[in-house]
Amino acid sequence: MLKILVCVSGGGTNLQAIIDAVENKQITNTEIVGVISNNANAYALERAKNHNIKAVCVSPKDYADRSLFNDALLETVDSFAPDLVVLAGFLVAIPEKMVQKYPYKIINIHPSLIPSFCGVGYYGLKVHEKALERGVKITGATVHFVDEGTDTGLIIMQKAVSVEDGDTPKELQQRVMEQAEWVILPRVIDLIANDKVNVLDGKVVIMK
Ligand code: GRF
Question: Which CATH superfamily is domain 2-206 in?
Answer without folding.
Answer: Formyl transferase, N-terminal domain (3.40.50.170)
